[in-house]
Amino acid sequence: MLILVTQFNSVSQPVVIISSVILSLGGVFLGLSVLEQPFGIIMTGVGVISLAGVVVNNAIVLIDYINRLRKRGIPIREAIVAAGCTRLRPVLLTAITTILGLLPMVTGISYNFREGVISTVSESTQWWSSMASAVIFGLALATLLTLVVVPTLYSLIYSITDAAEKGVAGIRRAYWRPFYRLTGTKPEQD
After folding, report:
1. How far is Cα 153 from Cα 76, in angstroms, rounded to an integer?
2. Is residue 40 part of a domain?
3. Which of 44, 81, 111, 122 is the most buried (most CB within 10 A)?
4. Using CA atoms, how far apart are residues 105 and 100, in angstroms rounded to an integer?
5. Is the predicted pLDDT of residue 99 greater than 60, yes or no?
6. What CATH code is carried by the domain that includes residue 77?
7. What confidence tens digit (pLDDT) does each residue in 18-28 have?
């Protein structure tokens, strides 16, 4: 978290990124309940950790591009829409390739190279199944949330920050107004 704070020079943007990780846990629990699998501390925990890495990467890519567009002078709403459109393909490709790569672990389909046959039930599947299902369902939900919730939270935080800055400026003007009237000077324009 500290690295993200120094990277973005903000506290609110890393909070948005971490919130996408927390929301992805809903997909993990949904997937485990749909497949009627227990939450294994070791293997499901490894799945949650690997899921967090992918989700954080997707959120960072999206927020970083929004910040770059904002530095170019693009208004906030247009920057969010443009970043969502531009980063849609990389986020979806990352999610789809990861999900497709883990499907054989969940389904139990494997190829036995010694005997040259396709096996539908393997010993390794029983071990890796909870990890793969946690990543698949968590990543599916997290991808949707990253593309919807992260830009929404970014816009909300920007709106709150902008309103707070305007409120502080209004209070400052009201506070100094009697001083300028008494001295006959004009306030400095920001």
Report:
1. 12
2. yes
3. 44
4. 10
5. yes
6. 1.20.1640.10
7. 888 888 888 89
Range(s) of the domain holding residue 30: 2-164
Per-residue model confidence (pLDDT) at position 189: 65
User: How many Å apart are CA 185 and CA 190, to the nearest integer?
Assistant: 16
The alpha helices in 35-186, defined as continuous H runs, are 41-71, 76-107, 123-183
In a domain, 78, yes or no: yes
Residue 9 lies in a domain: yes
Per-residue confidence (pLDDT) for residue 190, from 0 to 100: 54
Counted domains in the chain:
1
Look-up: residue for tokens 């925990």?
Answer: 45
52 domain-assigned: yes
Does the pLDDT of residue 74 top 90, yes or no?
yes
Distance CA 134, CA 29 (A): 7
Rounded-to-integer distance, Cα 111 and Cα 113, Å: 6
Kind and range of the H or E element at 32? Answer: helix 12-34
145 or 69: which leads in pLDDT: 69
CB 137 within 8 A of CB 78: no
Length of the chain: 190
* CB atoms near residue 190 (< 10 Å): 6
